[in-house]
Amino acid sequence: MLQKVNVKFIKNPEEFNLNDPIFIEGLPGIGHVGKLVADHLVNELGTQKAVEICSHYFPPQVMVEEDGTIRMPKNEVYVYKSDSKSPDLVILVGDFQSISSEGHFELVNAYMDIAKRFRTSRIFTLGGYGIGRLVEEPYVLGAANNRQLIEELASFGVRFDKGEPGGGIIGASGLLLGVAELEGIPAACLMGVTSGYMVDPKSAKAVLDILMKMLNISVSIEALEERAKEMERVIAQIKEMQETAIQQWKSDEDLRYFG
Question: Residue 165, preceding bond cis, omega within 30 degrees?
Fold first, then answer.
């Protein structure tokens, strides 16, 4: 029977022998920026799956695999044991965020319990910040639950613009910062600026570049770069269509002088 939030530990956290790991959240959101980064880390770092999370608060559906079989929606936690040159990581990825306000709080409490089980030293949440227009050169905005972390992130190129993000940070990426503060855990959100209209691998690459510098890790970014180039081609086509529409509108306006 499915519970409101069902957390299944595949292995006990102690068995991974992690040392003060950093918890990274990258669930679906604006531009799928955070999800793209977190999924990329999971795939490139050779991680191990540690936790599966199912919930009443996910959309009422099943996922259909390529071979036609189905599975329940789930979020997962993967762990990365480093070579001591970089920190150990606990990475939250998955299919969905909650479809209700209550669910967001219930799920974030579950994520925090998992982070504490792994004795997380810091939390970084990843997301996108939609500005409603195409972005030529994405940059990364930040928010944190303590001043020292803000200064540290700023040194890596994270921007803390006054009044941004307007309206706050909704969902797991925001709530985890607040709950982490209550638990005494330093936490910050890295937001790649994006149009918000489409999946944005270019913005994800901007976030990943900063995250790699912060964590002293190195992963191939070839897959993200290729997707970013594909997106640039799509944007170029959109701009061409917009320019054509503008020229057509101007032409129609000119014709109104005759009649």
Answer: yes
